[in-house]
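Bench log, entry 3. Co-assembly request; chain sequences pasted below exactly as received.
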Amino acid sequence: MAIKTDAVGKSWPSTTYQVGREKIREYATVLGIENPVHYDVGAAREAGFRDVVAPPMFAVVYSMHALAPAMFDPEVGMNFATMVHGGQTFEWDEPACSGDEITTTAKCVSIEEKLGNGFYVFETTSVNGAGAEVVRGTWTNIVRGV
Amino acid sequence: MADWKAGDAVPELRVTPDKYLTNRYAGASGDFNPIHIDADFAKSVGLPSNILHGLYSMGLVAKAAAQGLGDGDPRALKKLTVQFRGMGLPEQEIVVTGSVKEVEGDRVTVDLEAAQGDNRIIRNARAELEL
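Structure output for the full assembly:
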């Protein structure tokens, strides 16, 4: 059966996430990231940030809200029973700070079959309230045996 | 100017996620997929046990790069690419290792991987930092 590629190029509605100090603290604590700029507004401002700043990989927290509807879209049609997260890229620009409202848009950039497996690639683009790009994510999901 | 040169080792990061780490990471990240937090469910779909979130392991690779080279400055890391391979398990030590591939002015490119024993859970990771 040929892989379904109708969703290539499709975008999903943007989601907006408000970054907060306690969510940053929670994320940084779990990862054991100890730099006080992630916990203390005074330390963050002294280091040149508007407010408590998120570690780079906090990008997953706000990107996921935009990505989930794309991944579960029946038009994409991924079989979750045999899906694995195969690869991930993030490219960071403006740091994400507490108080930022970050708007993320997800798009399906490619669906390909390689050696009987399906490679589903999504891109998320996140911008802050000032319109500056915060991060761009490329998410590769592999579905075995399509 | 960065003091790094090609071939330099990235300071190693060693972390042993405890039994409940995946629950805390689920809460922090919003990813409550039961394969990460429910051992019985994970076994019912053919996994050895509940497994670590790949993006948690990637978070450790990001931490190793940012702390090891960028003094923990969250602005240092500009790009990170990883491939998820073997499954990571709670209660086993994760070791993140790496080496500097290239230095161009303030831009440092680093190759990294994360492993639990012989099980390389993140391979072909490449980080670009501005120092």
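Residues 59-71 of chain A form the longest helix (13 residues). The longest strand of chain A covers residues 101-114.
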